[in-house]
Amino acid sequence: MRILVTGGTGFIGSHTVAALHRAGHTVRLLVRDPDAVDRALGPLGLTGRDVQTVVGDVTDADSVRRAVDDCGAVLHAASVYSFDTRRHARMREVNVGGTEVVLDAAVKAGADPVVHVSSFVALAPTGGRPLDTDLPVGRPRERYMATKAAAEEVARRHQESGAPVVVTYPMATLGPHDPHLGDQLDRLRTLLRGQLPIWPRGGFPVGDVRDVADLHVAALRPGLGPRRLLAPGRYLSTAEFVATVRAVTGRRLPVAYLPSAAVLPVGAATSALQRVWPWHIPVEYGAVYTCHCDVRTDRDAPAPTRAVAETIRDATRWLHRTRRITRRQAGKAAQPD
After folding, report:
1. By CB neighbour count within 10 A (0-12 exposed, 13-18 middle, 19+ buried), where does 2 fall?
2. What single DSSP character describes residue 30?
3. How confident is the model at residue 336 (pLDDT cuts 50, 70, 90)?
4. 3.40.50.720, 3.30.70.580, 3.40.50.2300, 3.10.310.70: which CATH number matches 2-173+206-233?
């Protein structure tokens, strides 16, 4: 089947493209920069010759219609994932506006299924309930999370009309080979560099990008109608997350923990400063707020195929191999198996 993938040069998108190619599908990418295709897919064993490309933007209806033409299914993974306040305008444009354009064009073209890659944060805060696909759309007090919730509402409106829209919910996703070093891997790098000595209490569910890609291959089966699918993942408190990084690297990584409510004002202040400060500030309101929401999985949630320690080890090893951290910062994770 020919499948259109938006966001195919991103972290989740590129891994999904590679998994779809291995499964025998023909993949078409909608990309703004054709040169990004080789850079994103090369580490995963593919080149631009292995996929079809259409140059355009998810916010441009004409280019989306050209890309959707003659495709049996669509996977919409394009999204701006960042807690950087300088990117708020683009987040709204892509995460909400792009979702409206792509899903509308895909449904009108008769694609089946149309997979919308959402996020667990679109359901936050959950009021203490564990993650479940029956949860209402969240009302988060953070801009990135709010755009994902608004995009979720777009997808659900199509589902309510009977369109074969499938929504997937990746967790806080880690693993190797991130073409753009998104916020999640960058936060791990910052921790390994010793630049995050204070963490809020709370936690978040962690998943592996390779599990998300496998979920998307399974989700792209026609004829099953609208569905919502949690990606595999495991809840970790912030203390458990740091302890896992310590075990993987063999490093002490001194960290102090404060109540998340006490750290939120600091995150809000640094996010306000980030609007005018030219260099990235690692303490972000969105990251603190995610921990504060403390969204948990339960025993019925899909289990990851890899242990969280393996996911973090592979991510750390990749950060070292791509010279984003030193051998000392990677610790024993830099050693071959």
Report:
1. middle
2. E
3. confident
4. 3.40.50.720
10, two tokens: 């991103």
d(C-alpha 311, C-alpha 303), whole Å? 13
Q: What is the pLDDT of residues 68-127, one digit of tens each?
A: 999 999 999 999 998 888 888 999 999 999 999 999 999 999 999 999 999 999 999 999
- Contact yes or no for 63/39 (Cβ under 8 A): no
Three-point CA angle 236, 241, 245, nearest 5°: 150
Rounded to 10 deg, the angle between the 209-219 and 11-22 helix axes is 50
Report the alpha-carbon distance of residue 258 to residue 211 in Å, rounded: 32
CA dist 113 → 142, 227, 298 (Å) = 30, 10, 28
Instruction: DSSP letter for 59, please.
Output: T
What percentage of the chain carries pLDDT values higher than 70?
100
Residues of the chain with CATH 3.40.50.720: 2-173+206-233
Give the pTM: 0.95
